[in-house]
Amino acid sequence: MSGLLREARFLLRDRGALLWLALALLLSAAATGFGIAEVRGQRATIAALLEEDARDRADAISKQEDWGGAAYAAFHLAYAPPSDFAFAALGQRDTAPWLHRVRMLALEGQIHEADTKNADFGLIGRFDFAFLAATIAPLLLILLLHDLRAGERVAGRHDLLVATAGAPQRLWRPRATVRLAGLAFAMLVPFWIGAGIEGAGIAKTLAASVLVMGGLAVWGLIVVAVGRLAAPPPVLLAVLVGLWLALALLVPALSRAVIEAAVPVPDGAEILMLQREAVNDAWDKPKAATMETFLARHPEWRSLGEVSKPFEWKWYYAFQQVGDQQAEPIVTAYREGRLARDAAAEWAALLSPAALVERGFERLAGTDMRAMIAYEDHVRAFHADLRAFHYPLFFRDPPYDPVVLKGLPRYQPMP
Amino acid sequence: MPPALEARSLSLVRDGTIVLNDVSFAVAPGEVYALLGGNGAGKSSTLLTFLGFLSPSGGEVLVAGRPVTQDVEAARSAIAYLPEAASLYGHLNAYENLGYFLDLAGRRVDRAAMDAALDQVALPPEARGRRMQSYSKGMRQKTAIALALLRDTPILLLDEPTSGLDPVAIDEFHAMVKALAAAGRTVLMVTHDVYGACQIADRVGLLRGGRMVGSFEAESGRRIDTETVHAAFAAREAA
Amino acid sequence: MSAPFRIAREEWRLWTRSRVVVVAAFIVAVLLAATSVLTALRLADEAERRTARQASAEATFFAQPDRHPHRMVHYGHYAFRTPPPLSAFDPGVDAVTGQSIYLEGHRQNTAMFADTRAAADLGGFAALTPANLYQLLIPLLLIIIGHGVVLRERESGTLSVLLAQGQTGLAIAGGKALALAGVAGLFLLPVAVLAGLSVTGGESPLAAGLLVGGYALYLAVWAALVLAVSLWVRQRSVALGVLVLVWLMVALIVPRIGINAASAAIDAPGKIESDLVMLAEERKLGDGHNAADPAFEALKKQVLEQYQAASVEELPVNWRGVVAGHSEAKLTALMNAHAERRMESEAAQARIVTWFGLASPTLAVGAASRALAGTDLATHHRFLRESEALRFDFVQGLNDLHATALTYADDAARSSDAEAEKRTRVNAASWRLLDTFRFVPDPAAARAARAALPLLLLFGWLAVLGGAIVAGARRLAP
Q1: CB of C259 closer than 8 Å to CB of A127
Q2: A277-288 exposure pattern, b = at least 16 Cβ within 10 A, e = fewer
Q3: Contact C63, C153 (CB under 8 A)
């Protein structure tokens, strides 16, 4: 304990080390600040869009005269709001969609459209806390700790220090620990403040802090192990930077390439083409055949399932669903493929502390691949609700009454 | 009473070179022993084995009767070490350096005691509050010696303690060593200053090429004869 | 032999003897070679696939049977963006934006199915392309190899010897610069080879040459930085620490902060948001499916006058087709206005990010590299515009058919009368009105113009660092 105090006092006099810690603090504050700003922007966008969406839907429905037309014209906003922890890790929200406008038509043609984002953003990437903690912090730790022993050797103090201390651990352990803890605190304090502002909850903040400290501890072990080598500090730094590059950049990139080659995912464009062909073919196919496929899924409408006129709304929406059904196998394969890749990535992340920390943050923030797929599933569920609401109206065909439409399912975001 | 420091048939091989070859000597408690030799004779390595930084390839070294390799920490806690060209932390002043190193050794020493030690080594008071990177070589050496004193250990190991000191400082240093010996401390000094060694040492050992080639003792009441030692030092390696 | 060359040669000899240097260089070389080969193969594959897809989409369109033209408007078409030859080196935004767009009437869709949507998630640093390696890894290599060029002379005392012999600081600095340039030049080989291959693959020599030149400039900036630090800083560990810090900021942090800043400064509404705004305006234009919508009153009057008819049934053209064409034109104008606004916001954001190149040569070279390879945001925007032009073209062509090839009576009765419905089907040969779509990158001169600003920023960096080197060399003393 007294060793830690001694080294803490010593650290406060070490200007070089304090510079790195100040840098960490600054970067952490910047990352947290940017994250909070972005998340607030997204929430504001959602709020504004919800209003517009409700207005537009009411406006569209008011001009309609039948159930089919009302279903055709009414769009619904589906969204995944950023969680209270998303400020720390925006994760897949930058590449996967979290906003959709869906209507009663075939879902497969709508759900894969992403809201446009500036492509450069997805390419260069964002500076959020997760990136800082996973990728940058280890480099700062390396800069802080690589010359723990070698620096003293070069300065000619090593033997005196160790001889005075008696056991080497009495010197190196507190010194390394204080520096590591210093870096951890410099990074975590702005993060804690940010978590407080966002109301992220103690459990998540604690878990994230443990993740950060655990990651730093792993890197710390690596740095200290390499630091034992009898080589001058610049060589040690080069070796450690090389290791950092390997673990933070190369191993994840290679794993990613291997996973993508090993776990094939159907080409997304296939889904659309397939679904389009199915919907288009249905116009020319005998109506009875289409209705049969539909009624196999919805036997409850069998008694009302006859189509006599060249165009009936119930037939139109039936073949929309049939189109989706025909794309189902490949859609499922696409979804399973992505989940399989994510599961493989979970294992591969064990090889890279950086990937592990970043994925951990994404999991906590609900911005990992699984969360985005869960959102997609949620949108599909909402679309199913829409269909369940509309089918009775199409098949039973009561007189058109806009008041009924006030009971349209409302999209509720996932908690 | 066991010798404070003892080397028994100490041999040391590093990177294929024989650094020390069957070296034996003992330093009694309260004695001042000077280990003489030219560059590369193995003097510093001998000190490093006493401190447990190097492991003997053959034979053993003992501190207060216990082999160093058995309990390195105990050996180090009994020894205050002054390395050659000792440097402390340049960005700290003398007080802060002393405070840090003593804390490291597990000792708490107040300012007054530090000042007393610094007086003993004659470090100018106005320099004590300045950063050590502004000190001259002699001032740095003096601070390091003060540290060794403040360690308050029974044994002191000094490596070239007078290199970089001016003649006045050297005299002061010799006086201090004599006082230490009188107070019962054991001093093992490694140097190539023949004259100075003979001035203060009770016994002198001569190392050449890793071997102990000569041992000289002061006759009672007298100092060791410098001429004899010098001649032995300068002699070519005989059979 | 001139003094700088001798000094450089000595430096090269020293580097080939240093284990750290050789190992690091070897690893980087292997990585570069492997990544180049893999990316080149992957993109050649992609290019082939997308061209085949485009041809297949066109064939499918032509192969549609006789039917009502409006069905074909909803059947739609696909546009694919084939990657340009230099994308083997810098895939740019290709993986992030979708590469296919569904083109249909009444709507502008967004590009779909970006590779990154289905990628394995291993963190934000996990994309390995030759361009990435050049931007991130080679500067690091230069740092490790070169941070001590002058420092080691100082440490070993040979600096004073050199200066005493009459070497000027400038000659020494020149020699060291030459040594670093040699290493940088060696590592330019892969990009030169890829550029050469792309020229054989049809790329313009100007673009390929400028790309290699741009990266040469980038590596020169880093070499200059390394030399400047080696001249000005006195301790080796401090020099290395400073350089690694600069690399960290310049290559990793500043680019991302630029993104954050651009995102915060300019609010580019997403498509959904601007769609909703547009919809409010669209309502005023009337529903193109409903020819009886009161919004078409003015049009009705005008057309009736034009053909001297008393009612729509008497028109020689199909009133529904006329309405469809008219509303499509109006809608498209509105959608284009909004799309242009969105693209302008994104372009403004991109400009902000490029100006951050003042603080980060990596951003600058990235922007230049993508512009020259034809994989930047501007190219994507052009793809969006050209596919929109394709869409408008074939939709209006179909609407023309709708107006001229069917009668209004048949069209109005087709939902109830099967015979009328058959008469509303147009001969399938008409589907040939669809243009073939082959997306090619901008002409090389246009790409070079877009890359001019970032390249200029790099020159600026080089000039400033050059000044620092000259100043440091003049003051060189042991």
Answers
A1: yes
A2: ebbbebbeeebe
A3: no
Token pair recorded at residue C361:
């040569």
Burial label for B22, CB within 10 Å (0-12, 13-18, 19+), is middle
Strand B155-159 relative to strand B79-82, pairing: parallel
The per-residue pLDDT for range A269-315, each reduced to its tens digit, is 778 778 888 888 888 888 888 888 888 888 888 888 788 777 788 88
Contact present, C36 and C188 (Cβ < 8 Å): no
Q: For residue B147, give every residue at least 6 positions away whose Cβ sits within 8 Å of its Cβ, in sequence order, or none.
A: B80, B82, B88, B97, B98, B101, B102, B117
Dihedral Cα A175, A178, A181, A185, nearest 10 deg: -140
Domain positions in chain A are: 2-19+129-251, 32-128+263-407
Q: Do A160 and B89 touch (CB under 8 A)?
A: no
Determine contact, residues B27/B33, Cβ cutoff 8 Å: yes
Q: How many other CB atoms are found less than 10 A from the CB of residue C66?
A: 14
Q: Which residues contact A120 (CB under 8 A, 6 or more apart)?
A: C93, C259, C262, C349, C350, C353, C377
DSSP structure string for C74-102: HH-EEEE-PPPGGGGT--GGGGTS-SEEE
What type of residue is A159? Answer: D
Q: Which CATH number fits domain B5-88+153-234: 3.40.50.2020, 3.90.1150.100, 1.10.150.170, 3.40.50.300?
A: 3.40.50.300
Task: Find residues 314-373 of chain C whose CB sits inside 8 Å of chain A.
Answer: 342, 346, 349-350, 353, 363, 366
The separation between the first and the last C-alpha atoms of chain C, rounded to the nearest angstrom, is 25
Q: How many other C-beta atoms lie within 10 A of the C-beta of residue C9? A: 15
- The verdict on A53 touching C (C-beta cutoff 8 Å) is yes
Q: Are A115 and A389 in contact (CB under 8 A)?
A: no
Contact at CB, B73 and A167, closer than 8 angstroms? yes
Name the residue type at position A5. L
Q: Please name the residue of chain A whose CA is at the shortest distance from the CA of residue B153.
A: A164
d(CA C63, CA C47): 24
pLDDT in tens, C53-77: 889 889 988 888 888 888 888 888 9
Q: Which two tokens stand for residue C408?
A: 């209004």
- Between chains, do A157 and B77 touch, taking CB under 8 Å as contact? no
CB atoms within 10 A of CB C237: 21
Supply angle C-alpha A179, A184, A188, rounded to 5.
150
What distance in Å separates the CA atoms of residue B162 and residue B144, rounded to the nearest whole number?
12
What total of structural domains would you count in chain C? 1
For residue C435, pLDDT beyond 70: yes
Interface probe for B, chosen from A6, A15, A159, A171 (most Cβ of B below 10 Å), is A159
Q: Which domain holds residue C411?
A: 3-474
C-alpha of A268 from chain center: 20
Which of A27, A65, A118 best tests the C interface by mutation, with the highest count of C CBs <10 A? Answer: A118
Report how far Cα C413 is from the mean position of its chain's Cα atoms: 50
Phi, psi torsion values for A403, nearest 5 degrees: -60, -35
Query: pTM, whole model, 2 decimals?
Result: 0.89
Smallest Cβ–Cβ distance between C144 and the set A113, A116, A238 belongs to A238
Tokens of C421: 């419905």
Q: What angle do CA A290, A291, A293 make, to 5 degrees?
A: 70
DSSP β-ladder status, B32-37 and B186-191:
parallel
Read off the tokens for A4: 């830690």
pLDDT tens for residues A227-263? 988 888 888 988 999 999 889 988 998 898 889 889 9
